[in-house]
Predict the 3D structure of the following.
Amino acid sequence: MRQREDKTNKMENKNDDTRLREVIAQAKTMYQEGKYRNPEYGEICMAAVRLVEGSDFGKNKAESTLEMKVRGDPFEEALNGDFDGIAIQYLGICNDLLGDKGEVKVEPYSGGIATRSARARFEPKKE
């Protein structure tokens, strides 16, 4: 009975990996073909893709950086907190993709006055 459970778990993990690879391939294709209606969202997705690929699809520690140019006045944008929502989206996407395989953290940081930056880190579950 135990062997059957192990085989079932391995099959589920393989299906999860296959599905994750399909999602990553689709995101890359959409980005390359310019199919994201909001270009900023496409940039967020590509940063998440880099995290997934860097982690070998959830097997290793990885880090990815999201850097976006400020659209308007950098001081005004810093004060109104627009980038907080982008960092939350980045965390949500990364967590949706890798959350079952480990821990995802996102931290905004200063990449310069005219750049909005955040770094995502992934730590796989210990078996």
In short: Residues 1-11 have pLDDT under 50 and may be disordered. The CA atoms of residues 4 and 10 lie 10 Å apart.
